[in-house]
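Data availability (excerpt). All sequences and predicted token strings are deposited with the supplementary files. A representative entry, SEC7 domain-containing protein, is shown inline so that the format can be inspected without opening the archive.
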Amino acid sequence: MSNEDVQAADNTLALAPPTYLPPSSKAKPSHTNGTMSTYSSSLRRTPVSVAVDPVALITTECITVTSAMRKHARWAHSSVSAILGGSHVPMPQNSRPGTPRDDTGRKGKGAPRIGTGGFGADGGEDGGLANRWGLRGKKGKSMQDNPLMAGFGRLRRELAGCRDIHQFDTPSLLHPFLQVIQASATSAPITSLALVAITKFFSYNLISPDSPRLSLAMQSLSAAITHCRFEASDSAADEIVLLRILKLMEGMLSGPGGDLLSDESVCEMMETGLSMCCQSRLSELLRRSAEMSMVKMCQVIFERLKHLEIEAGDNSEALDEKTKEDMFTVKMDPSANANDAVKSSLAAPPDSRPSSSFDKTRNGPSNSNSLDNTSELGVGPASESSDEAPIKPYSLPSIRELFRVLVDLLDPHDKQHADAMRVMALRIIDVALEVAGPSIAKHPSLATLAEDRLCRYLFQLVRSDNMAILHESLIVAGTLLATCRGVLKLQQELFLSYLVACLHPRVEIPREPGIDPSLYAGVPQAPKLVKQPSSGTETPVPVKDRQKLGMEGGSRKPDAREAMVESVGALARIPSFMVELYVNYDCEVDRADLCEDMVGLLSRNAIPDSATWSTTSVPPLCLDALLGYIQFVADRLDDEPEYEGYPGVAKLREQRRRKKIIIQGASKFNENPKAGLAYLSAQGIIEDPTDAVSVARFLKGTTRISKKMFGEFISKKGNEAILEALMSNFDFAGKRLDEALRELLETFRLPGESALIERIITVFSEQYIKGAKPEGITENDAIFVLTYAIIMLNVDQHSPKIKSQSRMQYEDFAKQVRGVNGNKDFDPEFLRAIFEEIKSNEIILPDEHDNKFAFDYAWRELLLKTGTAGDLVLCDTNIFDADMFAATWKPVVATLSYVFMSASDDAVFSRVINGFDQCARIAAKYGLTEAVDKVVYCLSYITSLATESPSNTTLNTEIQVGENSVMVSELAVKLGRDFKAQLATVVLFRVVTGSETVIRDSWKHIVRIWLNLFVNSLIPPFFAPNRMEIPPIPLQNPSQVIDRGPKQIDTGLFSAFTSYISSYAADDPPEPSDEELESTLCTVDCVNACHMGDVFANVVNMPVDSLKPLVDALLSELPDDPTSVVISVKSETEAPVSPNGPKSPAGPLYDPSMVYLLELVTVLALKDKETIAALGADVGEALQNVLRNAASYHSIMIARTMFYLLHLLHASYEHSFLRVPVVLHTISSFKKDLFDKSAPLVLQGLNQCIDEPGPLRNEIMTSPDFWVILRNLTGNAQSAPTVFKILEDVAVGSPPTIMADNYESAVKLLNEFASAGSVGSTIEQKKDRRVRKGKGEPQVTPVKQPKVDAAVARGVKAIQMIYSLTTRIPVLMKQSHLESKEAWAAYWSPIFRALTTQCTNPCREIRHQAFSSLQRALLSPELTSGEHEEWTAIFGEVLFPLIVRLLKPEVYSSDPVGMSETRVQAATLLCKIFLHYLVLLSKWEGMLGLWLKILDIMDRLMNSGQGDSLEEAVPESLKNILLVMSSSGYLVPPSQDASQEKLWTETWKRIDRFLPDLRKELDLDPKPEEAKPVEEKKAEEVKELAVAPVS
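Structure token line:
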């Protein structure tokens, strides 16, 4: 065959339609009528159409093959009928190829016979046969044509009348080509042409699903190509044949008739493909091609398994039941030489050795002795009407057999199979699992293979040092667990435990500079499973078992570690994988904590140093898997929880709690059994430690106890009851003695001392006799001795120390126990059965063996436990995520922190930051406070903003550009240069936003960040809504303010130099560079991106329980000892000075951060009644602590603290943690300069407290400290109006709050306000001077005049308010319950003292108001309501002192012009008051003394040297008094009233001293009677005059 022919054939093969659906395809095939043909055809693409006539195409292929055959010497003399197509005589209608039903699938019968009737090989036809064949030999001798050639001629004759090729009988169409394929005499090129032809027929749809007898044709074709034989020639041509066979098999399985193939056909085709893969003498290319074909065919075959399930519908068990009988009828035995085609290709060329048939046949020798053409095949076509048995389409039997063969190829102990074969088998198995893994798990016949042999071989292959084997076995194990893990619970535990043991490094995490170890404290140094006690039969698989099973991790090469990590990563990419580990292992007492170990493994290996013992790919692979785990949990956050079909969450929590206790208790038991049992009893695991049954039940049921310690414990003296209770837990019924002993010795390890062993065997013997009741044995002693003998036999047969020739034989064993059964022998058959069982199957004693037999035994044990372990719960739900994340978050967060700090790749930053965000969202959703706190702490650390002390702000520089400004600070520049820190800052506050209610301990880090940002002008105080109306917290002034507004830019070198020099000369810090400004702007953008306003908005709306940690964090930042605080910031009230300038005055420095803290805690505490009750006490104590140490703090802070405290006092009055007297006394004790600086805020706070009537207002008003505070603030011009307003509300407000306790204080304060109005005298006197000089009305000073006027107005109003208090005096006196004299002194005296004081006020307006008020007060009717002793004091305590003061030079000099008039008014007032109360005074004993004192006062006034006005007013006033007294009969000559003699005498005696002419002028001495009425009339006029007001 030419190379062109081969190439053309290859091109034809390439036209074949696709042979399989990709495993990733999720399309479900549709089947409307339930037939597999309809269903399967929907899966195929439309086949390639053919442009030539199909019959012509077939004819051409026939001619091509026969022409090639005729060129061969063997067929050179054949008839040309195959070329000409024969005579016109039609073929009989019943001439059809036979069915291969009798031979197809049979192995070892040689080539199957394709015909049993028609044209036989012996030529039994009529005389016209030679003519019909068209044969005429040499010399005219007739000869029969070769059957191979004749078949093509017959086919051409049958095609002659064919109109529709799809109606043509398919077996007849294929028959001649199949004969050629099976004929051993044909060469490889001829066989190749036949294969090409058949491939074309399928490719061009000449053979379709509707073709007649397609099923029979497919079986025939399968039989032919799997039994293909040809003469070996050159290897290239031979391998082309094999390649075409592979491609044809692919096409058959995936083509229209693939579903019609029988189980036998499929097995033979798979056997053929595997044989090609196995043959090492074939070229690498062909073997790889065979492997690829096998992969594709397996995809189709295992895809059919899913289709069969769909056909079966809900009744999935029907398929297994239906194929149960055929399950083991098909067998495959692939080998390098077991296939005809492979043998043919490997045979020697014709010139060295003729081609032969089967050397190694399937079931027997083939008929290989005939090499002539006519004896190769029976070629006669069979009748179409012959009976054909229905062919069952392939199903579970062939699929199971293929799976079995592939699995058996993995056996690591089978030396016949090379590693290359195992790699090939692993790849094919992986495809099978990818396509139909879940379906394999559903069918017991397939699942059993997967659970046992496949897992057993795989878990041994992963120990291989061959990287190809390791890599493929890890892939298959991963796919197996991904698809079938539901039935592989213990197998999965074993596999993952091994990976953990291999991959988890026992190396401490290296300390990196700049990374705090607390960031990665959660990463485990070792997996939990290595800490478990080791035992031969316990689970989870301990170290010893893993060693037996070949699963103990050791030193693996870096590439091996990387492959293992890839396997773990592939499993971790299953969304539910980790939660399934948690539910099925971590929450089960007898299983390992696989979820925690896997997360710990990924966490530890994600840290970059793991690359040192693996590869550089391992850290990112582990990090990706770890982040994927978090991603899956985060994706499920918003899913609706699914509870149906899953174990209860509470139940799993309880199991997990018990598991921790049992592990700890078992650990204690292994050290000290009594202590362990006591602990377990105390924890409720063992109900009663004194109850032997409870103890025995626990010890037998747990897998955590050391088997060695278990055996020693139960055999010790004193524990007999526990030993008996343990034995009673075994059911020995129906078990032979060795079987019962085997079950017993698997539970614990026999102790070493013979006495202890005897104790155990004695109790065992008794229990065995009771439970098993063995036939022919009645005595305990017989059982005792035989048990000992069996133990010794077990040691003898299996101890490696005993040579095989020295081991006991049956006779030796029987001799040992002769006569011990009640002086009789045991039944020989009974003894032999025991001997053979022990010899072939060792009783494994825990902790002893590590050979292959132990592996097989341990594996069997594992399989036995699968029954009790149950299936794996697949978890497509989020109900376990909270508990799982709570158990695993620590290593995750720690790893993210470490990686973020040490990484330099932006992609890593992005993934890790997203992981942080997801961790926080998960933790917040499930209320995992500790996890959120850890995330916040880690991110805070990374931001570098959460420093314990605020950053240095001394060099802060404000840059102004137009209306905008930015503060360039050390912190802003540093953060702006650190992209990592900026990223962490943004994510931190993204994490915090919405998680505020979950955060607890980590608030302190957030608070520190807030403080640093605030003091550097990067955030405002977000205290909205703020119930306190207070100006924003002032920050310290920047060191300099630079205006970079639009101006002419001078960029010259000289300009820059002069700018620098001028800055240096002024000792200012240099201006920020453009780079520093840019960094600052980056920081500003970063902070803006944090949206901290949202955080504060959420914070103020948090419930109290969530607010408490934040408030505690804020308060913890306040220093306990303020003297230790050293803050280097500028005072807000002081202008910045250069370092070389004058030093600022010494004193406490202003720290805005502390004000920030205090204001925020106050705002949070004042949120509502609940927060006040819960937080107010702590906040109040902090505020008071600041005020107690006021000397250590700046006045701005003290002022604001007083304001906060007063607001808190107002809100919390109903609580007892703040007391009004304490608060007010603290404030009142401040020095005056501090009061002056803090006056506005103190008054604002006080106003808040007394704004509304209530108990608080009353208590404050009655506190002396309140009035001290007001008095201290009165002198401050800025605060005086506010104080006066408060005072006004107190004095005249409604309801009035003047009470006995604050009456005197209020009057005093009003008096002080009146005194403060004296500043008005200066303006009055200036005005007088200008008037006298004729300058007219003076100009009013615009700045000071309003303040003076306001002070005078307050003074006048204060006098009015003082007078208004007189109306309250009667009520107050009544309420006071004081004696009359004391009450008068308490309430009247303060008012008169204040008014008399103000009657000497330099300001005339105030003085006049005071006189007017004093007169009204003195004339008040309430004044005389008491006894004489009370009101008469108005002279001695009020009027006399007033006049005395007015006579003092210093008083007079304060207003020389006005004081003269005031003296006159005082004199007149004295006389007026005396006259007003004359009647009452006349009844008083002290009237004479009072009158004489008045006269003395008048004398002093007359002689004061004031001038005419007083000298005129005094005599006039005296005249009025004397006339009234005379007319009233008080001042009369002794002749008229002897009782008034002394008054008369003393009066004139005194008057005569300073007014000698007055007596004569009044002429009051006795007169004649007629003159009396005139005098009386005058006296009455004087009396009326006395009641007129003083002008």
